Amino acid sequence: MKAIGVTTFGGPEVLHVFELPEPHAGAGEVRIRVHAASVNPTDTLFRAGSQAARLSGRPGPYVPGMDAAGVIDELGPETDSRLKVGDRVVAAASRRHDKQGDSRRRQEMTESNAPSGAQELFDGEYEPSPIERIRNQVALYESTQGTQGNTLEGRPVVILTTIGSKSRKIRKNPIMRIQEDGIYVAVASAAGSPKNPSWYGNLLVHPELRLQDGSEIHRLRTRDSSHPSRTDRRLTAWGTLPEVKRGKPQKGLVQAAMPILSCYHRSFTDDG
How far apart are CA 108 and CA 142, in angstroms? Predict the structure, then answer.
């Protein structure tokens, strides 16, 4: 098969076409015949050498590329039973290295891209944030399965995916990783501003969400935990915010009024 890759890192001029052995799906993997692909910002970083130290000593060529859409044409053993040859899918490909150090591409089929009716809400168009820092952090986090771009002001983050309240487009934001008793907690804090972040408004209209925590992706539903009767959860979330840890809350930052959402698996019920 032909692939565009690099043997040295730099600008677009280092990209070349290579003839590579045809790949086959391994255990838990699928092979996708790609009909459309995009150039992710992470691909340009990779081409420029962001992973050069990690790839040192491994044989090339190194093939960038992560976002793709197409049709499954081969299933490996132990693959999710919901997946079939001929399924139309979208995928985020993660790079792995086998014991011989060969660089390969793997299509990760998870809840985030499996062709299931439950995923229809998240099959729409993704519109990256207009804020450069946010869209770059989301791209880096997703492309590295959360091994990079995973902190904000020294605190761990997860990637929250919501549906636009009016546009119904896919929106993604890094938010503080807060867990209590195995339940994720989302605090609607916009860096201490009295105005709630846009993703909070999205969840009021569409309470379904997708949350990526490292390599794990969860399909969840929100419940308001802001009420004073849920004091423990409210204080847990409050004490995690960086603007509080700095000891200089911005004007308008009010603990009692800040919306706090608990994120449950769709089949999970809890009065907490």
Answer: 12
Contact 73, 105 (CB under 8 A): no
Structural domains of the chain, ranges and CATH numbers in brackets: 2-113 (3.90.180.10), 132-265 (2.30.110.10)
CA distance 185 to 167: 25
Whether the Cβ atoms of residue 258 and residue 188 lie closer than 8 Å to each other: yes
Distance CA 217, CA 200 (A): 20
- For residues 169 and 226, the answer to whether their CB atoms sit within 8 Å is no
Measured distance CA(243)–CA(88) in Å, rounded? 44
- Give me the DSSP letters along 115-135: --GGGGGGSS-B---SSHHHH
Indicate the residue type of 265. Answer: H
Are 260 and 180 a contacting pair, CB within 8 Å?
Answer: no
Q: pTM above 0.70?
A: no
Q: Give the ranges where 33-185 is alpha helix by DSSP (H).
A: 41-48, 52-55, 132-143
Ordered mean pLDDT values, 10 residues apiece, the chain (272 residues): 88 91 87 85 86 83 85 88 86 53 35 42 84 94 94 92 90 90 81 80 89 90 64 48 45 50 57 36
Is the separation of the CB atoms in 153 and 226 below 8 Å? Answer: no
What tokens were used for 168? 């119904």
Residue 50 gets the label, from left (phi > 0), alpha (psi -120 to 50) or beta, of: alpha
The H or E element containing residue 204 is helix 198-205
- How many residues would you count in the chain? 272
Cβ neighbour number for residue 200 with a 10 Å cutoff: 20
Taking the CA atoms of 212, 88, 26 and 104 in sequence, report the sign of the dihedral they define: negative
**What are φ and ψ of residue 131, in 5° steps?**
-90, 120
Identity of the amino acid at 18: F
